[in-house]
Amino acid sequence: MVFDSEANGASWPVAGIVIAVTSSFINGSTFVLQKKGILRARDRGGSYLRDAVWWTGTVSMVIGQMGNFLAYNMAPAVIVTPLGALGVLFGAVLASWILQERLNILGKLGCLLCCCGSAVLIIHAPKAEAVTSRLELEERLADPAFLLYALLVILLLFVLIVRIAPAHGSSNIMVYVAICSLLGSFTVPSSKGLGLAAQDAFGGESWNGRALALFLGLLGTLAVSVLMQFMFINKALERFSSNVFEAIYYVTFTSTVILASALLFKEWTLLTMTDSLAMLCGLLTVCVGVVLLRISQEASLSWKQKEAREKMD
């Protein structure tokens, strides 16, 4: 479903945006529910794998990821990924209710900025896809710039998982955040590429072995990256606040995904200079909002406290 623009012949990927927003809200609940399940299991002295709330969060994550898969194949990645800020917003509100993690005036301001930044991103997003066929995708996958980036990401992941995580993962939240964010460099391009490869692998009248091989390769990459993200997300939730992790994770995940998508799909080439600057401002607004959500977890600031101090003076 798209809306046509007579002025420039472009179209709005409305269905993709709607699915992306819905998936963001579903994904926003997953960390909170999984964290609640982990805390319940810890209080009982058992494993969170036997907790119904944790499994509810896990099922929500699966549904949210399926929604993301559809959204990435119906709208540009540079718009779908930043809309994840709405999930951070919903997760912060839900955590204040379920986990009693406070949401003060800074947190509420951060939520407002996330909404405003997301609106700017939607308005100025690319109206068309930069890669529309499997052959184009194969050509982009062989691009030296993307291959170099993928190699660097794999090397960083190896160092983080093998050397740094065992020593510092339990004390530094950025270790698990970095691992999950770098894995996103493979998760999102694989999700988007699967739709293009599937069209030739299963949509044609004749069997296409090359398209099927590409499809299976992308599917394997997606499965491994998602499972590894799932594992390290739960490790992080066992040790850190769900709001803190989700907020930092959003900023780093969005940055790595947009970089990977820019190198592979080159969706930014479809934007005018005005739209590019507007999307950059929108992304920065969203990131500032997420940072304020993060700060709100440690800052004790409210209008009531201010009024109380004024009365004392």
Note down, in words, how this protein is organized.
With 313 residues, this protein is an all-alpha fold. Helices cover 77% and strands 1% of the residues. It contains 12 helices and 2 strands; from the N terminus they run ββαααααααααααα. Helix 4 packs antiparallel against helix 5 (105-123), helix 5 (105-123) packs antiparallel against helix 11 (273-296) and helix 10 runs antiparallel to helix 11 (273-296).
Overall outline: globular
Instruction: Indicate the proportion of strand residues.
Output: under 5%
Helical coverage, percent range:
over 70%
Mean model confidence by pLDDT: 77
Element order, helices and strands? EEHHHHHHHHHHHH
Count the beta strands.
2
Number of helices: 12
Write the layout of secondary structure elements.
Elements (H helix, E strand, L loop, with lengths): L2 E2 L6 E2 L1 H31 L7 H21 L4 H4 L4 H14 L6 H19 L10 H8 L2 H25 L4 H30 L6 H31 L2 H23 L8 H24 L6 H10 L1
Antiparallel strand pairs: 1-2
Brief sketch in words of this structure:
By secondary structure, this protein is mostly helical.
Can you tag this structure with a few keywords?
12 helices, globular, mainly alpha, 313 residues, two-stranded antiparallel sheet
